[in-house]
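Case study.
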Amino acid sequence: MFYREAGDFKTSYVDDSQTFPIKFDRWRYYAVLAVAFGVVPFLINDYWANAVFVPFLIYAIAAIGLNILVGYCGQVSLGTGGFMAVGAYACYKLMTAFPEVSILIHVLLAGGITAGVGVLFGLPSLRIKGFYLAVATLAAQFFLVWLFNKVPWFYNYSASGQISAPERTILGHAVTGAATTAQAKYLFCLVLVVGLAWLARNLTRGTVGRKWMAIRDMDIAAEIIGVNPLTTKLSAFAISSFYIGVAGALFFSVYLGAVEVGEAFGIQKSFLILFMVIIGGLGSIFGSFAGAAFLVLLPVLLKNILVGQLDWPTDLAAHIELMIVGALIVIFLIAEPHGLAQLWRLAKEKLRLWPFPH
Amino acid sequence: MPDQLLFAMEVTLNGLMAGVMYSLVALGFVLIFKASGIFNYAQGVLALFAALTLVGFQNGQIPFAHLINAIFGTNLHEFGWHLPAVVAIALTGAVMVLLAIIIEKFVLKHLVNQAPIILFMATIGMAYFLEGLGDIMWGADIKKLDVGLPQGISETVESVTDSLFGYGFFIDNLDIVATVVAALLVLSLTLFSQYTKYGRALRAVADDHQAALSVGISLRFIWVLVWSIAGVVALVAGIMWGSKSGVQFSLSLIALKALPVLMLGGFTSIPGAIVGGLIIGVGEKLFEFLVGPMIGGATENWFAYVLALLFLVFRPQGLFGEKIIERV
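After joint prediction, the assembly is written out as follows.
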C-alpha cells in the first residue's frame, strides 16, 4: 500500500528519470534529510558527534566507495586503509601548502589524488582476478603505509612522525582544529555525504554503473558485448578511490585531528570497511549506510554495556567485544548473506502488499 | 671471497630459513583452499590459538581465569602443575580437532554454496572470535614457549663455514629444526594424500565437490578432516613461531606474511607454498640487505606483496597454480 509504483504517473522524461522514481522512497528520503539537517544539529553534543555521528558519516563515504568497487564492479580490494591514508596525507600537504584555499576544495582534491593512486594500483586488475587480486591490493595497503611512515616530506619533517590538522574555517566557522564545534563537524561531513551519496546513486543507475555490473557478473561476456574492461575497471577503481580518499581526508582532518598512519589506516581499517560493505549489502548505496551505522554503533553499545553497566575490567571487555563482533559477523553472514539491504528490500516487498496481502 | 658476497650468502641462507617458516603457515591455507575453496584468513589466528593453548596446558593455567575472577570475585590462576611438552602438544592437537568439528558444525555447514567472498569474510569473523577467545581463555600477556627445541646460534654451521670461507655464518638452530620439520610435514602430507583412503577422498573433493558427493564421499567429514589437519599444521607453525618470538598477538599476523607466498606459489599447490615461501624469504631478506638501507629500511612489510604482485601480472595463477580457464 505504501510502497508502490501503481498510480504514480510520470508525464515527462525528467519525472521518469529522477533519482528516486517511487513516491514513497522520495518522501522517505526527504524526511531523512529534514531530520539530518533540521533536527540533529540542535541536539548534537561533543560525545554524540565524536562517538557516533561523525565516524558514521565518514565511514559511510568510505563504504560507498568500496561498495562501488566490490559490490558494483566485483573487484575485491583490501587496500582501503592505504587509500584512506593517501587521502589524509594529500589533504594534509594541501592544507599546509595552500592555507588560503578553502578546506572543502582540499578535501575534494585529496580525493582526486587518491583516485590517481587508485588507478595505478588498479592496473593489475586487468590481469589478476578474484582472490589473487584481493591479496594483490594488500600490496597497496602495506606499501602506502610504509611510504607515509618513511618519507619525511609527507609529514612535513615533524619530529613525532604524526600529521595534525591546522585550523581551517568555512564561512567563518572552524571545521578542523581544536576549536571546532560538534555542529560544524557534523554539518560539514553531512553536506559531503549527501552530495557524494546522491552522485553515487546516479552513477550506479547510469551507463557507467551498468558497465560495472556487467563486468561484475561476467567479465568475458561483458567484453564480448562491447564493454571495455580497461576503462570500466579503471573507472571503478578511480571513483571508488575518490570516495575513499575523501573519507580518509575527513577522517584525518575533521574526526581525529592528528594521525599516526600505521595506527589509523592499518589493515584493520581495510577489513572494517569491507565488513561494513558486506554486512550492509553488496551493490547497494543504502546498504553502505546501514553497514556503517551497524559497525559504528555496535562497539559503542558493547562498551557501554560491558564497562558501563556490568563494570568489567576494560581489557576483558575489549576481548569479549572482539568475540561478539566476530560471532555477530559470522551469524550475520549465515542468516542474511546479502546484508541489511536485503532486509530492507524484503520490507519494501511487504509494504507493497500490506495490509491486503491477496 | 669479498665480505659483501659472504654477507649476501649469509642473508640468502637466513632468507631460505625464514621462507620455510612462511611456508609452514601457507601450507595450512593451501590445504583448506584446495579441499573447500575457502580462503581461510583465520589460519594465522589458529596458529596463535594453538600456541596459546599449548603454553596454557604446559604451565597448568586455568582457562578463563580472568573472566571467572571478574564475575565471581575469586582469585584463580593456575592448577599448579607442569605438563611435559609431549603431553601438552597431544592435548593441544586434540583441542584443534575439536575446534575443527565446532567450526564445521556451527559455521561451514550453514555456508554451503555461498559466494567465496562471503566465506572469506566468515573466516575473518572467526579470526576475530578466536583472537578474543584465546585472550580470554589464556590471558593477553606475552608468553614464553619452550618445548625443548634447540635455540641460538648453530655452532656447527659457524665452524664449518668459518673453516671454508674464513667467516662464520650466523644461523639459528631453531630455523634448522623448522626446515627439518617442514620437510617432514610435507612428506607426511604427500604420503597421506597419495596412499591412504582418506587422502584419496580429500583429493577427490578438491577436484570436484559434486562428483565426490555422488560417489559417496561425505563432504562434511572431509571438511572436519581438512580443518583438523590445518589445525595441526597451525599448531606446528605456532610452536615454531612461538619458540622464535614468544606467544603474543603479533603471532596472528604471520597470516599476512603467508599471503604473498600463496599468491606466488598458487593457492592450490603444496609445492607452490614451499617454493613460494623460499622465493619470498630470500627475496625480502636480500632486498632489505641490498636496497633497504638506501630507502629507509623496514621494507620487509611490503616487499613480498609487491614482488608477488609484479609476478602475478605475468602469470595470473601463480607459479604452480592450476591454469585458470574461463568460459562464457
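Observations recorded in class. The mean pLDDT of chain A is 88. The two ends of chain A are 12 Å apart (CA to CA). We will return to this complex in the next lecture.
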